[in-house]
Amino acid sequence: MNFANTFFTFFLLALSQLVSTSPVLVTREAEVVWSPTITYPDGNDTVWQSGPTVYNMTWYTDDIPEDAQNNTGVIMLGYFDNDDNDSDEHLDWKRPLASGFALTDGIAYFTIEPSRNLTTRNSYVLCLLGDSGNISKELTIEAAQA
Ligand SMILES: *[C@@H]1O[C@H](CO)[C@@H](O)[C@H](O)[C@H]1NC(C)=O
Ligand SMILES: *[C@@H]1O[C@H](CO)[C@@H](O)[C@H](O)[C@H]1NC(C)=O
Ligand SMILES: *[C@@H]1O[C@H](CO)[C@@H](O)[C@H](O)[C@H]1NC(C)=O
Ligand SMILES: *[C@@H]1O[C@H](CO)[C@@H](O)[C@H](O)[C@H]1NC(C)=O
Ligand SMILES: *[C@@H]1O[C@H](CO)[C@@H](O)[C@H](O)[C@H]1NC(C)=O
Ligand SMILES: *[C@@H]1O[C@H](CO)[C@@H](O)[C@H](O)[C@H]1NC(C)=O
To answer: What are the UniProt keywords, alphabetically (predicted)?
Structure first.
């Protein structure tokens, strides 16, 4: 498990986007570091299937700082591979599960498209990015291929 790493990656990304436009913003952005508390998937034997079913991810909104109230979020799918020693989340940056939703919604909906050609694993995670990021507990996805 390494959500600190996810956070750091996102932070660098945010910085790299801002650096070119305004160094003043970098300082301001650095002060706003809210990591969402993910409430679902909650590690309670969650099993999803790729296909038409609409799933959701939820998080607490009470603690969103003022400066991040208008932010939109992005949800990435990733997984841990037990054969791999670097605790990489293998996040699929190219194909977010959901994006453009308001962080204050506290929920986002999506399907697991068969065209992702996933492998069935019990170690998938969802990463929610908006201000800083955090990852969910692990869940199982029973995969179908397109
Ligand atoms: C998991 O589900 C069981 C049975 O519904 C419930 O008692 C338990 O509180 C749940 N645990 C979590 C972490 O949600
Ligand atoms: C989110 O998903 C959970 C688990 O499938 C479900 O119990 C819940 O009703 C869903 N929430 C909404 C608002 O659709
Ligand atoms: C968020 O949006 C509202 C309404 O557009 C605006 O009044 C407020 O200043 C914005 N807050 C931030 C931190 O950008
Ligand atoms: C993980 O570590 C073991 C023992 O140190 C090593 O044999 C193996 O090649 C490593 N696997 C990867 C994917 O780096
Ligand atoms: C999924 O597999 C199909 C059949 O092998 C292939 O045509 C398609 O390009 C793959 N999609 C992705 C996103 O890899
Ligand atoms: C990240 O989310 C988990 C639930 O998946 C929660 O237990 C943890 O407190 C959150 N981490 C931070 C830094 O908010």
So the answer is: Signal
> 38 CB under 6 A from ligand 6?
yes
- pTM of the complete model: 0.77
Please tell me whether the peptide bond between 23 and the residue prior to it is cis, using omega within 30 degrees of 0: no
Tens digit of pLDDT for each residue in 104-139?
Answer: 999 999 999 999 999 999 999 999 998 889 999 999
Helix (H) or strand (E) holding 25: helix 23-31
Taking residue 74's Cβ as centre, other Cβ atoms within 10 Å add up to 18
Report the alpha-carbon distance of residue 56 to residue 108 in Å, rounded.
5
Other Cβ atoms within 10 Å of 55 Cβ, number:
19
**Token pair recorded at residue 17:** 């986007």
Instruction: State which of 44, 45, 46, 136 you would mutate to test the pocket of ligand 1, scoring each by most atoms of that ligand within 8 A of its C-beta.
Output: 44
Ligand 4 is surrounded, with C-beta below 6 A, by: 83-85
Does the CA dihedral 89-92-96-97 come out positive or negative? negative
Rounded Cα distance, 140 and 68, in Å: 31
